[in-house]
Amino acid sequence: MPHHLNTRLKLYCSITKSRLMFRRLINTTTEETCIFCTVYTNLKEVNNNRPSQNKFICSRFVYAQEQ
Length: 67
Prior knowledge:
Layout: E1 15-16, E2 19-20, E3 32-40, E4 55-63
Antiparallel strand pairs: 1-2, 3-4
């Protein structure tokens, strides 16, 4: 299987008071839970061709367990 990132810009992390908060974000499409966030400064938008501000996307994720 090719090492492609299908969930590249699907899981975003929230930032509050200039502090990175590790909030668990659940992706509705893949049902994955974010557990770690990574900062991307020169991240290019998919819709826009110019670089945007600092964005926090999910770097690590785990499959949501059925409760």
